[in-house]
Amino acid sequence: MERKLNFQGHIEKTVWRIIWQFGLSIILAYLVPLVFLSIEIHSNSYSFNREVLNIFFNVFSWMYACTMLVIIISINLTKLLKIVKQDMDIVYHQSLWLNHNPRSWDIQIAEFSQTNRHIEAMQERIERMVQAEKKQKKDVLFKVSAMAHDLKTPLTVIQGNAELLQFSIQSNQNYQCLKDIEKASQQLDDYFNQLISYAKMSYTKPIYFSDYSVENLAKVIKDECAYLIGKTITYHLSEDLKEGYTVHVDMDLIIRSVDNIINNAISYGSKPNQEIRLYIVADARHLRIIIWNRGAGFSEEVLENFGSLFYKADSSRSHKNQHFGIGLAFVKQVMVLHAGYIQLQNINQGARVELAIPVYEKG
């Protein structure tokens, strides 16, 4: 394998190349013509030879030499800078990806080659750490999911007994206590179901992407929201769809994400005057699903940590129903899988959630 020169070596090589090329150009274009000319210098005569001598030894001759030197220096410096730029591009592109760049062998400057090797070693360590973290996360989610399955059995027993005892107890106080137990058990059951759903998406459930027209997906979302909201809540629908675009999505995950947001809007809406608005907007870049509900807004802690699993904010929007951040963490993960995004915002005395999915022109 050819030994790579360091940057100082390339500079010295360039300098010697300039000297060699300049000397060669002087010999071929300046001195050789003089050899073939017979120059006779007469003290009192003016001949053709003296005119030739004046041509080669006047100011224009020096200008010619300087011009030739500048051209040679420019050409060689340009060549050196191209080498530097090429090596910098290779190192730059290598730093963007975890995969090995086959162009690494084309690096000519030793310092860049060494830097590239360090980057590759660092990327290998990062990749090992990422894989280890993924494995650890899957193990944790598997254990948590298994624990949730185990806890659902005694929870079902508690719920069943609480419902049964409500029919045999006459005391209002005891009846209310049983109702509270049943309600808390139902909340825990919902929590475990969300946790199991999140865990399945992370390590077991396969993702099935398919192409749907924007109009078809919007229709499915509208029907789902109308079913969940029902007739007792004030519901407004608005849509602005640009035709000729498709989305590449897992329909089940998208619908479950919308279900999570709608259920939260119903749970946290201001009673008895609940109001939910659904906006479906499609442009040349995204299909945006915007859900707004009148009621308690998001706290600053929720806005900063809503994507974190098990995050539970002590705010007006979370004290009645403890979701521990699983629902929003699930939705955020779904948006990441679809190269989209989720945004939360407090606006117009309510809470606004925006889901955005990339769209593509129909082929």
From TrEMBL:
Keywords: Kinase, Membrane, Phosphoprotein, Transferase, Transmembrane, Transmembrane helix, Two-component regulatory system. One of its GO terms (biological process) is cellular response to phosphate starvation. It comes from the Bacteria. The chain crosses the membrane at residues 20-39, 59-78. It is found in: Membrane. GO terms for molecular function: phosphoprotein phosphatase activity; phosphorelay sensor kinase activity. Its EC number is 2.7.13.3. InterPro entries: BphY/WalK/GraS-like, HATPase_C_sf, HATPase_dom, His_kinase_dom, HisK_dim/P_dom, HisK_dim/P_sf, Sig_transdc_His_kin/Pase_MprB. Pfam families: HATPase_c (PF02518), HisKA (PF00512). GO terms for cellular component: plasma membrane. Residues 146-361 form the Histidine kinase domain. Its main location: membrane. PANTHER family: PHOSPHATE REGULON SENSOR PROTEIN PHOR. This is histidine kinase. It comes from Aerococcus sanguinicola.
